Every structure is written in structure tokens, then in C-alpha cells.
């Protein structure tokens, strides 16, 4: 026993001076993938000078299962349930983006009621995604639990709607090429109207809770500033791009679905910092409520699926198509090449949150480690989509 | 927005020596694309981004496509003299088209809100060291996506600032999105391998007769026992 003590004391240790900084020395830290606030299995190799981030390299691939290769070995319809697993918070918008691309590839028309149902479900998805994102962001900031549970209370109501319509809360698999899978009855629409009408009350409460909060303002304003030029060059899309003041929304630009029929505004940020990104989500939810109110008032009975579309032996003509929609996290696109066979020759997903991570290093440089978590939370990533 | 022919003409006059082909898209989507030559690709990309009328400042999607070697069959009617008579005979010629890897870029303009202009580049062959110029200096959004193409298709992008594997781990050797990729034999060790599992196990482990007790069952071992 005594011998062990002697060896321990014999180890030479550098002298420790209290309160001194390691001037100019970089300490490499691996943040994640088990870190509780990295949002899934995401890792960052960070070089720190004291508490300041001097270098940051994201590491991907822990959830990689080669979704695209599986898509190339499956029939067109067979990939539909698998798109749910991309961004598992927003399966409805994933379904829509894929259905839209295949409809472009094969030239399929979609009936009116199906278009309305798609818009209603996509906007409900946006509501629950943004609400839970704000909850998670506050969770990362140290408001442990309470705001997240406020957000999840609303999210549960919307997931219940999804469940009663499609049979599943998160893995909905609801859209089909040329329409939707099941029709919504009047009781479902009435419940949706009720939830949408009550949603602004939650928003008022939530905005009062977070947006005027001194700690939230202190943690987010002037943190992680992104310039408009860099955002455009780096292909940033969605609320993160609009927080920099760039007016670009695929719903307005492409006018896919029936979006040109609805009146809604595009909220724009001014500074491009974390606070603006947070505000974007809160404001977009209000506009989504507006779209939902109009869509739920206008929807008419009718067929929900194009009867001409073959379900078995579905073979689009030779060609290629790129379809994109404004998913809650940004521009979600599917690029498909058909060689006339039952499987796509090339099946590519353009994941918005993967490309939004391009600027993560630029956002974090010069900030503290604690800010990295807040900035990462405001980018809004889901690893199912980033790693595919 | 101008038609692809106009863009092609203007780009070819602006950049001397540049060669652009229009790749038709026969499907209902009607999204033809521009095939740009590799040598002038960065200059053409810069022109597309900076031209006042185009301003394609937003590179949305970057992806790779693998086209295998294929054989195009052509049937031509040829006049031939058969048994003293002149007859029309179908003659099939086979043309071998060598495979190539392709990188496809979908460009949009945030300034003018138009798009998409699709550009593509092709490598010369499908060999391991297939190369293309990187467009990351023009559009930063290509940074991770070109890394992904390098990882999954094996195209090396010249001029990319940080070309490493991104989704697969660094020690991984093949490129899994290629059409001729062969999956590794995912053999799992079993304590008592038998039959076909044993046959697969033998491919994975070098034989170790000493450990398995093989030397004692040789013909010579009987003699030692007698002594």
C-alpha cells in the first residue's frame, strides 16, 4: 500500500496558480454525442481558449443508414413511410415533399380537397414543430422543463389530431401520389377548428413568458449573428434565412399546392441573431394560424385521391424532377431520376437542417461554450434528417 | 427568366472557350439542364452567380449520380446480297457508352426569385480517382454536400477547402452510393459455428490448426502413442 502512495507523490505535476488563464493555449473538447443538449447524436469538436470557442467542426453520421440507397432499392410508394423517419417531428411535410416530387416526375394532378388537407396538415405540423423547438431551446438555456411542457401540451393536441386521422402520432405516412390516404370527417375538421382557434391564446401566454424575459434576451440577443450575404451563399433556408431579413419563402416563391389562394405574411428579422431566429418561429406560428383558419373555412367535400394513379406497377416515365416545399426547418427537396422502372434510379433528399449546419462554425466563433448550445438549438436540427 | 439556350449563348460569349450542352429531360417535369465543361466550370458558375440578369445566388441542392457502363443498341436496315438476291436485312450495332459520375447543382435566385437552373458536370470515367472542380468557392452551400458526394460516390473535388468523409467513418474504404457497390459480409461471430455459418466463418478467420487441436489427429500421432 505504501508503495502506491509513494508513486503517486512521485508524479510531477505542473504548478497550479489559482485564477490564471491558459493564455493562447487551445483545449480540444468533444461535445456530444451523449451531451444532453446536442439534440440527438450530434458531435462537435470544439477548440477552446479558456471558455471562448476558437474552432468548431461538426461530426455527422451517427444516425446514418443510407436512406437514399434504400430509396433506390424500394418502389416509389415503398419509400413513403420511410420519409416519415427523416425529420420525425414533421412527417406530414416530408410526405408532402416526396409526393410533390413524384407528382412532378409523373405529371399527376391532385384533387382540390386533398390539396386543402395537405395544407392544413402541413401548417399544423409547422405549429407543433415551432412550439416544441421554442420549448427545447428554453430547455437548453436552463428553463428546465416548464416551457417545454407548455409547448408539448399544445403539441399533444395536434398529434392527437394526426393520430385520429392517419392512425399514428408521428409516423403518419399520410400522403399518396395524387392525393391523401384517408378523408377527414366533419368531426375531425370541427376539432381542428377548435384547436386552431385556441392556439393564439397559447401563443400570447408563451410570448409573454419568453420574449420579454430578461434572461432569454440576455442569452440570445447579439449571440450567433448571421449576415444576409453569408446566409444566402451558404444555402440557409427557412426561418433561419428570414431572421437575417431575406424575404424568401418557397410557399410564396413557388406557390405550390394552393398557397397562392391564402392571405398570409412572411415575418422577417433584422439582426440575424439567435433572438431573431427565436422570434421568427413565434411570428410564423401566428401566420400559420391565419392560413389554417382560411383553409378550414374554405375546404369543400370532394374526392381526395386522383383515381388515375396506379398504385401497383407505378412506373413514372423516363426523366428527372426536383420538387421542394417550405418545411418547418427550411427548404425540403427531393430529387428523383426515373429510368422507367418501378424503383427510382436516383433518390436524393435535400435536408434543410443538414445544410443549415454549414454556418454553425461561423455562428459560434468568439462565443462561449454555453452559447454554442443556444445557437445550435436555434438552428433547429433533427438528426434523422441530418444523417439520413 | 431567359431560356436555357439564351443562358448558354451568353455564357459561351462571356467566357471564351467554354462549352455548354443542353441535356434534355423527356419527362413531364420538363426540367432540362446545362452540362458544363469541367475546365471552365468555376468561371461559368461565377458568371451564373454574378450576372445581373441571372443572379443565381442560391445553390439549393448538390448531388451525385452514378451512371454505369451501358450498351446502346441500334437497329439499321442494310441492303445485303443474300443468295444472289438483294435483300433488306436488319443489322444491329452495339455502341458501348462508358460510365461516368455526375454532379448536379440546382440553382435559384433569391434576388430575382426565379429558378431553377440545373447545371451538371461529368467525370471522364468511374475510376477511383474521378475528379471534378469544386464549386464551394462560388456557393458555400456546396461545402457539406460536395463532401457527401465525395463520401458516397467517390468524386474528388479540386479546390474544396475541407474534403473529408462526412457520413461514413474516416476508415471506411468504399463509396456506398455507387451502383456497383458490394455490401461487406456482415459476419457475426458465433460460439459454435456450424454448416453454412461455419463455411462463412472460415472466410473471415485464418486457419489456426494448433489451437483447434488439429496436429494431434495427424497420421504421425499414432506412432508416438505406440512407443
Please give the alpha-carbon distance between the first and last residues of chain A: 54 Å
The overall pLDDT average of chain A reads 86
Content of β-strand of chain A: 5-15%
Class from helix and strand fractions of chain A? alpha+beta
Major sheet size, sense and barrel closure of chain A: 3 strands, antiparallel
Please give the number of β-strands of chain A.
Answer: 8
Say what the CATH topology of the largest domain in chain A is.
Cytochrome-c3 Hydrogenase, chain B
Mean pLDDT of chain B: 82
Assembly category = heterodimer
CATH architecture of the largest domain in chain A: Orthogonal Bundle
Structure description:
In chain A, strands 1-2-3 form a 3-stranded antiparallel sheet. Chain A has helices spanning 2-10, 67-72, 80-83, 91-106, 112-141, 146-166, 186-210, 214-220, 228-233, 239-242, 250-253, 274-298, 352-356, 360-364, 369-379, 383-386, and strands at 27-31, 43-49, 52-59, 175-176, 179-180, 319-327, 330-338, 346-350. In chain A, helix 4 (91-106) runs antiparallel to helix 5 (112-141), helix 5 (112-141) packs antiparallel against helix 6 (146-166) and helix 5 (112-141) runs antiparallel to helix 15. The termini of chain A are far apart. Chain A is built from 16 helices and 8 strands. By secondary structure, chain B is of the alpha/beta class. Chain B has 6 helices and 9 strands, in the order H-E-E-H-E-E-E-E-E-E-H-E-H-H-H. Chain B has helices spanning 4-14, 41-50, 142-153, 195-204, 209-212, 221-226; strands spanning 20-23, 33-36, 58-67, 70-82, 85-97, 100-109, 114-122, 131-133, 156-158. Chain B is flat, with a radius of gyration of 28 Å. At the A-B interface, helix 4, helix 9, strand 6, strand 7 and strand 8 of A face strand 3 and helix 3 of B.
Amino acid at each position: 500500500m505504501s508503495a502506491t502512495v509513494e508513486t503517486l507523490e512521485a508524479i510531477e505535476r505542473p504548478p497550479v496558480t489559482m485564477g490564471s488563464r491558459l493564455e493562447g493555449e487551445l483545449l480540444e473538447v468533444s461535445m456530444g454525442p451523449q451531451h444532453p443538449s446536442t439534440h440527438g447524436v450530434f458531435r462537435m469538436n470544439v477548440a477552446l481558449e479558456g471558455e471562448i470557442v476558437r474552432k468548431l467542426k461538426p461530426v455527422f453520421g451517427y444516425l446514418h443508414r443510407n436512406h437514399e440507397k434504400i430509396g433506390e432499392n424500394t418502389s416509389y410508394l415503398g419509400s413513403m413511410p420511410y420519409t416519415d423517419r427523416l425529420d420525425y417531428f414533421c412527417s406530414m411535410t416530408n410526405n408532402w415533399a416526396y409526393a410533390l416530387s413524384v407528382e412532378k416526375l409523373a405529371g399527376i394532378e391532385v384533387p382540390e380537397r386533398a390539396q386543402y388537407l395537405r395544407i392544413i396538415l402541413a401548417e399544423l405540423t409547422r405549429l407543433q414543430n415551432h412550439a416544441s423547438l421554442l420549448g427545447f431551446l428554453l430547455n437548453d438555456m436552463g428553463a428546465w422543463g416548464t416551457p417545454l411542457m407548455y409547448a408539448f401540451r399544445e403539441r399533444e393536441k395536434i398529434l392527437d389530431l394526426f393520430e385520429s386521422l392517419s392512425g399514428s402520432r408521428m409516423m403518419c405516412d399520410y400522403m399518396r401520389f395524387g392525393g391523401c390516404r384517408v378523408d377527414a370527417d366533419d368531426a375531425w375538421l370541427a376539432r381542428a377548428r377548435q384547436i386552431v382557434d385556441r392556439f393564439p391564446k397559447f401563443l400570447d401566454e408563451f410570448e409573454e413568458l419568453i420574449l420579454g424575459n430578461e434572461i432569454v434576451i440576455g442569452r440570445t440577443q447579439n449571440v450567433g449573428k448571421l449576415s444576409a450575404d453569408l446566409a444566402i451563399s451558404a444555402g440557409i433556408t427557412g426561418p433561419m434565412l428570414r431572421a437575417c431579413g431575406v424575404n424568401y419563402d418557397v410557399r410564396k416563391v413557388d406557390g405550390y399546392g394552393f398557397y397562392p389562394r391564402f392571405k398570409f405574411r412572411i415575418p422577417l428579422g433584422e439582426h440575424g441573431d439567435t433572438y431573431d431566429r427565436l422570434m421568427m418561429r413565434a411570428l410564423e406560428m401566428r401566420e400559420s394560424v391565419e392560413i389554417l383558419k382560411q383553409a378550414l373555412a374554405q375546404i369543400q367535400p370532394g374526392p381526395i385521391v386522383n383515381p388515375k394513379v396506379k398504385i401497383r406497377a407505378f412506373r413514372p416515365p423516363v426523366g428527372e424532377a426536383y420538387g421542394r416545399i417550405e418545411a418547418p426547418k427550411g427548404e425540403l427537396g427531393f430529387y428523383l431520376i426515373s429510368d422507367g422502372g418501378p424503383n427510382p434510379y436516383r433518390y436524393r433528399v435535400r435536408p434543410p437542417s443538414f445544410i443549415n449546419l454549414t454556418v454553425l462554425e461561423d455562428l459560434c466563433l468568439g462565443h462561449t461554450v454555453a452559447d454554442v448550445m443556444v445557437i445550435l438549438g436555434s438552428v433547429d436540427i433533427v438528426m434523422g434528417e441530418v444523417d439520413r | 427568366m431567359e431560356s436555357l439556350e439564351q443562358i448558354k449563348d451568353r455564357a459561351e460569349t462571356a467566357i471564351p472557350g467554354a462549352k455548354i450542352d443542353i441535356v434534355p429531360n423527356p419527362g413531364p417535369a420538363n426540367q432540362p439542364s446545362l452540362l458544363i465543361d469541367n475546365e471552365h466550370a468555376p468561371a461559368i458558375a461565377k458568371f451564373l452567380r454574378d450576372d445581373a440578369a441571372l443572379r443565381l445566388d442560391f445553390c439549393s441542392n448538390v448531388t451525385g449520380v452514378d451512371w454505369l457502363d451501358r450498351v446502346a443498341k441500334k437497329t439499321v436496315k442494310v441492303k445485303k446480297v443474300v443468295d444472289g438476291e438483294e435483300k433488306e436485312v436488319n443489322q444491329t450495332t452495339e455502341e458501348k457508352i462508358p460510365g461516368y459520375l455526375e454532379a448536379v447543382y440546382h440553382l435559384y435566385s433569391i434576388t430575382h426569385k426565379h429558378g431553377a437552373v440545373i447545371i451538371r458536370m461529368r467525370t471522364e470515367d468511374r475510376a477511383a480517382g474521378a475528379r471534378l472542380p469544386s464549386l464551394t468557392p462560388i456557393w458555400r452551400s456546396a461545402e457539406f454536400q460536395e463532401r457527401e458526394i465525395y463520401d458516397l460516390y467517390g468524386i474528388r473535388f479540386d479546390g474544396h477547402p475541407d474534403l473529408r468523409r462526412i457520413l461514413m467513418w474516416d476508415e471506411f474504404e468504399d463509396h456506398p452510393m455507387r451502383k456497383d457497390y458490394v455490401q461487406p459480409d456482415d459476419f457475426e461471430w458465433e460460439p459454435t459455428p456450424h454448416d453454412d455459418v461455419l463455411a462463412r466463418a472460415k472466410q473471415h478467420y485464418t486457419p489456426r490448426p494448433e489451437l483447434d487441436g488439429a496436429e494431434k489427429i495427424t497420421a504421425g500421432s499414432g506412432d508416438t502413442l505406440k512407443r
